[in-house]
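User: If only I could read backbone structure tokens as easily as an amino acid sequence. Underneath my words sits a plain record pairing an amino acid chain with its backbone structure tokens. This is the protein in question:
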Amino acid sequence: MTVRSWRWLWRAWAVLAAAVLLAPILVVVPMSFTNSSTLAFPPEGLSLRWYGELLTNPQWTLRIPVSIETAFATAILATVLGTLAALGMTRGNFPGRGLLTALFLAPLVVPIIDLAVGDYFVWALGWQVGSVGFGGGLAGTVPGLVLAHTVLAFPFPFITVSTALTTVDRTLELAAAGLGANPLRTFRRITLPLIRTGVITGAIFAFLTSWDEVVVASFLASPRVSTVPVQIFTELRQSYDPAAAAISTVLLASAVVLVGLLALIPVLSRRAYGRSAGGGIMSAEGGVAAAAG
């Protein structure tokens, strides 16, 4: 075969691989516009009735706010904890850092069902050691879902912030400290602006982790407090309800928007830095002076 033939062959394989990966995702979108009462592909007619169903059916109107609240709270909590852990791992020098880092990243490799069972026993049943109790009573509550999802989402801000911290010039922090800035002010005025991209990226990944998680949520959900993915799974087990395809399309669109935002963050950060540096506001010297002042 000629070099040109090999190139066309590799392109064909790339297109085939993309089709295999995208087909199960994109097939949901046209089915959500069906006029039929059951899921079918290709869809029978076109209608928006199932999107209207999301706004009127209590099965969805009760779950959507829970999912949004849980995802936002998880993103905030996981990002705060992940940022603090990343600061400790990159700035600290103590024995056992490697072991602790592996522990922080464990949710990425531990089977999700194991985490789900553990979260259920901790947050639903609780632990009792003598007279000291921990957890329990959080099944069917938003705080229980947030705490369980934070365990899953924590590694993402930890990784992104740790990576961002490795690019920070420590001399800027030391200069601010030498000019009299306390550690909190140094972090707020020097470190945080420099790792902002990593923090935002980690928060978005943490949000998406909670937004479409079903296994852990199914262990802690109740008939009154449940998430959208759990309801989708329940609906498809009972019937082929097109409303499940409609809400799945909404979840997919939300994920696409957030992933698109991830791609724009570096561009927006460079433009913001260019404007501020040009005005003498956020240059390295200006930032250090502002922190010291």
